[in-house]
Amino acid sequence: MTDAVTDAVTDAAAPQPLSVLIVDDEPLARLRLRQLLEGEALARVAGEAGDAVSALAWLHARRCDLVLLDIALPGRSGLRLADELRRWSQPPQVVFVSAHAEHALHAFELEALDYLTKPVRRERLQAALLRARRRSDDAAAAPAQPTLVVSDRGRVLRLPIADLLCLKAEHKYVQIVSRRGQWLVDDALTELEQRLGAAVVRVHRNALAAVAAVRALERAAEAGDADGGEGWSVLLVNGERLAVSRRQLAAVRAALAGGG
Fold first, then answer.
1. Residue 89: CB partners within 8 Å, gap ≥ 6?
2. Which of 20, 133, 226, 251 is least crowded, fewest Cβ atoms below 10 Å from its Cβ?
3. Tell me, which fold does domain 16-141 have in CATH?
4. Cα-Cα-Cα-Cα dihedral of 169, 187, 56, 89, to 10°?
5. Those residues with Cβ within 8 angstroms of residue 173's Cβ, 6 or more apart along the chain or in another chain
6. How far apart are CA 177 and CA 174, in angstroms?
7. CATH 3.40.50.170, domain 147-256, yes or no
8. Over the stretch 191-231, which tens digit does the pLDDT of each residue have?
9. What is the C-alpha separation between 242 and 201, in angstroms, rounded?
């Protein structure tokens, strides 16, 4: 009886296997990976796709922990797909699986977890799965980052507030600029300002700057602007400058001094 209770507790505490999406245009290659993953305690196959477009459609509708991604796909390459995925607020981990080794450097520049060459050996796949498991566990154990939840063309995004650079109203939309990419959202700038609170400061009637992203408050080269500016701007960590209106100058100074 004690052994049965112990086994039940151990099973309940065991981590869930990583959900894996296999992306390869060759059915036999997908079958080979699926067979290698059968019986693996670390992972389970959640789906398959034969090209980047199908993979994106699958990932928009569902989520997975890991993508086993071929490079030579019809249409959009696996490298381009990985570059798009890494801009998501919560991207899946990517392990490239390719018949060619020459793309490895580019793959790691795209923050790939690993690069496996075909034919894939079981030992190498298991090593990649172990790395993915550790990274997933580390992310789960890390303190949750405050996020901004917005809608991008019907897709819900969770953007880490610590990565925000600025938000700019453009016609009917707001452009959100982050260290991870840029998005156009339907939310009003005033509503986003209220939700972000002290993390941002209004620098102009059409722009907010993330306080943590401001490198300096500087006198601008221009003498002024149509909004009554007095030649001031904020320099962001990405090198972009935003004009500061005369009306907002005192608030910007206070926010940068820690009194916002």
1. 147, 157, 158, 159, 160, 180
2. 226
3. Rossmann fold (3.40.50)
4. 80
5. 184, 185, 186
6. 10
7. no
8. 999 999 999 999 999 999 999 999 999 997 654 454 444 58
9. 12
CB 148 within 8 A of CB 159: yes
d(CA 127, CA 112): 14
Burial of 216 (0-12, 13-18, 19+ CB in 10 A): exposed
Amino acid, res. 105: L
State the number of CA atoms in the 13 A half-sphere of 154 facing the CB.
Answer: 2
Which residue from 97, 114, 183 is spatially nearest to 148, judged by alpha carbons?
A: 183
The confidence score (pLDDT) of residue 162 equals: 93
Nearest-angstrom CA–CA distance, 230 and 224: 5
Token reading at 173 = 């939309």
Contact criterion met (CB below 8 Å) for 116 and 131: no
| Residue with tokens 């941002």, as numbered in its chain | 200
Where do the CATH 2.40.50.1020 domains begin and end in the chain?
Answer: 147-256
Helix (H) or strand (E) holding 207: strand 207-210
Closest CA to 178 of 148, 155, 151: 148
- The overall pTM is greater than 0.85: no
Q: Which residues contact 223 (CB under 8 A, 6 or more apart)?
A: 231
Q: Could you read off the pLDDT of 36-76 as tens digits, one per residue?
A: 999 899 999 999 999 999 999 999 999 999 999 999 999 99
Every domain of the chain with CATH number 3.40.50.2300 lies at: 16-141
Reply yes or no: is the peptide bond before residue 119 cis, omega within 30 of 0: yes
Give ∠ CA 131-137-139 in degrees, rounded to 5: 105
